[in-house]
Amino acid sequence: MNFAIDYKADEGRYDGRMPYRKCGNSGIKLPALSLGFWWNFGGINPIEESREKILYAFDNGITCFDLANNYGPPFGSAEQTFGRVYKENLRPYRNEIIITTKAGHDMWKGPYGTGSSRKMLMASIDDSLRRMNIDYVDIFYSHRYDAETPIDETMQALVDIVRQGKALYVGLSKYPVDKLLYAVKYLRDNNVNCLIYQGKYNMLHRDVEQNILHTLSNSGIGFTAFCPIAQGILTDKYLHGIPADSRIGQGHYLSRKDISEDVMRKVAALNSMALRRGQTLAQMATAWLLAKEDVASVIIGSRTIPQLADSLGAIANTSFSGEELEQINQILEQ
């Protein structure tokens, strides 16, 4: 597949292949699937492979591109990749795209290159806009709660970033519920509502079900899930060993302890269930999230076009019977 600089988007991208879901109490709708740039779009990845995935996603109705200042590797390079593809291919479609970025984790050396201080956030948004060749992002997230920075300082920086026109909306990621409630009130009192919350959510990691989702629903805030297939664990990838090019094989954020005998027994049972549904396990895991009304969008981070196509296939069947949902819970609770 060859995408030239004179790329023209697929005319059928809004033909119903991608559902769009309301995000909280806002006027924004997000694609059921968003494209995440955490690991597979950095400087170590060939630009043409990244370009192909980005444009393939857009051609199939994915209009939300989820980035952060430190996505790569190396840090900043995922934004640079997106910026190049945006400049060369997607600029005519800017009004059709939701571009997000975040700041809060390690980014540069020294005491000001991490955390959620005003200095860090203000420097980060400017750097992100420059790397991505854009004038504003649609959503700017505080990437994590930073206990060393007063939360008022962090929230006021978000308010000012919106008022300066550098972001249209703000979001929060990985905040504990008490800090989330405080942050939401601060933002609302300053006429900058929190649009969305981003959290880790999959069949093996369900902490947000305890109180986050309920809190967001009551506050009119949308929710987007990252890590839907548990970095590849919720696929058939590890059922017959550890592939050399896998995250565990390469030591990328996963290790052998993450695929214990207990975990793989559950994965095998889930895989058999997915096959009975006519899906891959990755598709069923993603569909399981999309079946939940609280989820506005699921962020997928495909390494290849076939993986991206497989993820898109999850949309075809997001319905689960009560019996199927009970069976999934039984498998996970074993």
What does this structure look like?
The strands form two sheets. This protein has an eight-stranded parallel β-barrel, surrounded by six helices. Strands 1-2 form a two-stranded antiparallel ribbon. Helix 1 (47-59) packs across helix 2 (77-90), helix 2 (77-90) packs parallel to helix 3 (118-132) and helix 3 packs parallel to helix 4 (151-163). The N and C termini lie far apart (44 Å). It has 334 residues and is an alpha/beta fold. The protein is 38% helix and 14% strand. The longest helix is centred in the C-terminal third of the chain and has 16 residues, at 261-276. The protein contains eleven helices and ten strands. The relative contact order is 0.12. It has one domain (20-229, 289-317): NADP-dependent oxidoreductase domain (TIM Barrel).
Compact overview of the structure:
This protein is α/β, with parallel strands linked by helices. It contains 11 helices and 10 strands.
What would CATH call the class? Alpha Beta
Q: Strand-residue fraction?
A: 5-15%
Quickly count the helices: 11
Residue windows where pLDDT falls under 50 for at least 5 positions: none
Largest sheet: 8 strands, parallel, barrel
Overall number of domains: 1
Q: Give the SSE string.
A: EEEHEHEHEHEHEHEHHHEHH
List the helices and strands and how they pair.
Blueprint: E1 20-22, E2 29-31, E3 33-36, H1 47-59, E4 64-66, H2 77-90, E5 98-103, H3 118-132, E6 137-142, H4 151-163, E7 167-173, H5 177-189, E8 194-200, H6 212-219, E9 222-226, H7 247-250, H8 261-276, H9 281-290, E10 297-300, H10 305-312, H11 322-333
Parallel strand pairs: 3-4, 3-10, 4-5, 5-6, 6-7, 7-8, 8-9, 9-10
Antiparallel strand pairs: 1-2
Helix pairs in contact: 1-2, 2-3, 3-4, 4-5
